[in-house]
Amino acid sequence: MEDYKYLFKVVLIGNAGVGKTCLVRRFTQGLFPPGQGATIGVDFMISTVEIDGVKVKLQIWDTAGQERFRSITQSYYRSANALILVYDISCQPSFDCLPQWINEMDMYASTKVITYLVGNKSDRVNQREIPAHIAERFAQQQDMRFLETSAKEADNVKRLFLEIAKELTQQARDNEICSQYSSASDLGATDTSPVGNFSCCKGF
Amino acid sequence: MAATSDSRRSNLQQLTTLEDIQKGLQNLCKEEARVNEELVVLLKQQPDMCCLNSMVPNLQMINNDAAQLAGMISFTSTLAENISSKVRQLDLAKSRVTVCMQRVEDVWDLKYCTDGVQTALQDEDYEKAAAHIHRFLSLDENVLRMSADASEGSTLDTSFKLLHEAQNKLQMIVHRQFDAAVHCGDVASVERFFKIFPLIGQHKEGLAKFSKYLCAQLSDMADKNMKTALSTCAGDKRANVIFADTLTLLFEGIARVVEIHQPLVETYYGPGRMFTMMQHLQKECDRQSRKILDHFRNQRNLEMKLQQVEQSLYQRTLSSTEKIEPKELDPLMAEVTLLNARAELYTRFVRRRIMNDLEVATQNEDAKAANKEEVDKLITTCELSRQMQELIGNYIMMEEYFMHEMVTKAVSLDLIDESALTSSMVDDAFFIVKKCVRRALSSSSIDGVCAMLNHACSILEQDFQEVLYARLRQGMPSGFDFSQAYNLVQSSLQFGKLQSSDDETQKQKTAFLTTLNNADVSCEYIQTLKKSLEDDTAKMYGHVNDQGSAKLQSCLSDLGAVSTRFTDVLEFGFSQFNSGVLKPRLRPWLDAFLSVDHNITEDDFSNYEANDPWVQTFIVNIDNFLITFKSSLTSGNYDSLIRHLSNEITTRLEKNVMKTTFNRLGGLQFDKELRSLVGYLTSVTTWTIRDRFARLTQMATILNLERVSEMLDYWGPNSGPLTWRLTPAEVRQVLSLRLVLSSCCFTVSPCALIGRRQLLLYGVGLILFLPAPSLVGDNFSSMGWG
Ligand SMILES: Nc1nc2c(ncn2[C@@H]2O[C@H](COP(=O)(O)OP(=O)(O)OP(=O)(O)O)[C@@H](O)[C@H]2O)c(=O)[nH]1
Ligand SMILES: [Mg+2]
To answer: Does residue A67 sit in helix, strand or coil?
Structure first.
């Protein structure tokens, strides 16, 4: 059962109704759920993908966007390996709230976390309120990767999660090499500095 | 047959030797015997064949009979076909007659109902009137109108009209009477008319009216309860949880109402109606719980406290006096968790009641799934749930603050008690974490528990483990030694002053060791905490769905993973200890080995027996060294200490052995020394020491050889259960340390592929033959003839 090499935590955040749950269900179950109700608290899903022949398990935490769940959802930031901040390209307020979300991320998330800005509902071309280039520039300023998706049309959804899995796997491999190197050089060294306490990403 | 005899004949030509001919004859005899046997069998079957012949005329007769039979059967079947089609026609006719009779009966009933309902209404016998209407409603009016003369003014038409009128009248009466009964609190009449609604096709209306009546009762009760709650004096035992109590009373009231009236609804309205009723009741529940929770927020100053907590959490610059005192939040959090636990219990009750009822009413799986979704939606989106979600959110923020503040406080007030191995912060911090997570558990909110588990991990890693790191980073005062300290104290006492720097060193040392112990105990505490929380969740959250338990599982396993962070701390601490204390202390003791001659005479050897040159002193030294730590380290850390000590000894001693030369007696002496050392270390730990000394033991074995050829008894195919930890190159190196051996002739067999036995047979007594092919190519001369 537990035949995976790495386990990563991916946490989705963003205003209520921007389509976080739909993105997750599109990716994990390959469907677009009709009449998706608002998420209560946090939902949890597992998906295993293969990156360069290595099994990688993604633990996806889909948080509720409604304000009253904020203190619950915040508790998941710290152990996240990747954070996906979602807004709705056809809803200006969901874009206007981004600085608030980024503020929260700065406060709670680990410094090593990979962050993605995702503009969802790209199928709603006629109702678009946020031009892609504006969002892209914003993402650049915030040092985030950017992607527009449509959970409805299955556009870029797989790509989003696979890119994340790939990047995290690469990071984990680099860490392994790094720690092998440092443990080798530890032998005989007189003052060893502590290894960073950042949560290890390796499967446990 | 012919072919075979031909070939046989030609074969005959080839039979040239006597032997062949005899063999051929033998074969022919065998075959003759076989053919004879076959013939006998065939002859036995001959009478049967004759019998068959006589049967041929009979077969002809049977054929004729069969043809006749077939004709008869086909005739019979046509006949049967004819008869059955007639029967079918009869059946049809009969069923039509039945329907016809049913219609007649219906018309008759209709007439009976029309008359009956009038009299019943006149007699105010509403049950009877309703029964007539019920019968009438069960008839298919359209069909009846088609099957009889129902033209305007006919008797049938008049009947229908009268019945419709009666139905309307009865509906009006029942509504009016029900309201009147409610108005004057006539419970019997309320129930009487409640039962009539479904008979006259007014299920929905009946349930709505009845629910409204029940809601009014609930509301009265809730008002009374609220008055009692608000007048509870502050000193009352339940004052701290009075709103949770009031909410509980509301839920109990609803549960009682359901308990009492569910059978009534099921009996008179049929299964599947509880959902509708519960929807009505839930509206009242929402209204009343909102009132209670509003009072709760006001009376407990919730908003203000939340604001203070938020400020204290996010404005790190706030001084401790400006921050809200975490203990002040204790009662508030207790009440919030109790409120949620009650609400959770209640919603579970509601769900169960509705689902059980729907289960009976629906068979179709799709419909069941749809029902479940509807019920879930009612429960998760009702005002009560929304309010509770809000409160749990508030609670999490308060609890996070509480845990963070209290753990930080425990760390800052850390006390080292000389009589204990760990300092106060470990017990205190874990007590707090456990208290907080268990309080979250008591709320029955899975998301709440998960959030607190996440926070617990953060706080243990950041506020707690980081402190341990920082303390270990300061290091262990190097070169520290008790006897040395003792001497210093003595000398300084002589001079009449106690040097405070020694005091400092002592303090620093204790702090370091205590921190190591703290880290070790923390690992254990985390595992214990995880285990006990797992047990608790299994007990309290056994009912949750897969999704919920998967979340709990994941968060709990994250908590377990925090213990590896403490293992990292330990590793770091020991590396500090190694370089700062262990190495400097051990080096001189181990290097003393170099000054002991291992190239010795019999006399030296027996002299060593009496006056041990090295190992006894060494053992006394490390024993003294270990004793100073034994009482101040946890058993886990003490074992780690011995592990590190053993490592240090083996690496250093190996190096020193390589720098020494041995003769046979010297080898024996070293073997003795090693045995004493291993024996001592084994006696002071539960750790398996022998394995760590495997390389040194093997060196001793080699140095102890009488002749090089004995090496062959240990190496290669003869090694038996012994696995070599030394590489072939090392073995050679060790061999070269033996003076006598290395001056003898070493050679490589020119024919390395010949087995050992043969080598010995060839009489080369002192040939070392190591079977690894790579060795053969190595340059042996360096250790050989030199
Ligand atoms: N057109 C379009 N509609 C979408 C898309 N993704 C989601 N929606 C719709 O947006 C609404 C909200 O989607 P959810 O996935 O529930 O949103 P959410 O972010 O999970 O909301 P919360 O759980 O309340 O935080 C639903 O009605 C979806 O049908 C999309 O890609 N295109
Ligand atoms: Mg959602």
So the answer is: helix
Q: How many whole angstroms separate alpha carbon B73 and alpha carbon B65?
A: 13
Verify whether ligand 1 is closer than 6 Å to residue A94 (CB atom).
Answer: no
ipTM of the complex: 0.88
Question: Which of chain A's residues have a Cβ under 8 Å away from the Cβ of B458?
Answer: 75, 78
Nearest CA to ligand 1 atom 6: A19
Q: Report the topology of domain A6-201.
A: Rossmann fold (3.40.50)
Residues 6 or more apart whose CB falls under 8 angstroms from that of B136 comprise B110, B113, B117, B163, B167
Segment 66-95 of chain A within 8 Å of chain B by CB: 68-72, 75-76, 78-79
Answer whether A150's CB lies under 8 Å from A27's CB. no
- The CATH number given to B413-578 is 1.10.357
Residue A157, judged by CB atoms within 10 A of its CB (0-12, 13-18, 19+), counts as: buried
Amino acid at A64: A
**Ranges of H-type helices in chain A:** 20-29, 70-74, 92-96, 98-108, 132-141, 157-186
Residue-level pLDDT at A1: 53
CB contacts of A40 in chain B (<8 Å) are: 380, 389, 447
Could you state, in order of their start, the residue ranges of all structural domains in chain B? Answer: 1-43, 202-401, 413-578, 604-704
Domain ranges of chain A: 6-201
Test site for ligand 1: of A11, A12, A21, most ligand atoms within 8 A of the Cβ? A21
Q: Which of B6-10, B17-21, B164-168, B571-575 has the lowest mean pLDDT?
A: B6-10
Amino acid A176: pLDDT: 80
CATH number given to B604-704:
1.20.58.1970
Option in B551, B558, B579 nearest A190 (CB): B579
- Cα–Cα dist A89/A149, whole Å: 9
Q: Is the pTM of this model over 0.90?
A: no
- What region does B417 belong to: left with phi over 0, alpha with psi -120 to 50, or beta? beta
CA distance B280 to B164: 30
Which residues in chain A are closer than 8 Å to B551, comparing Cβ atoms?
A: 42, 44
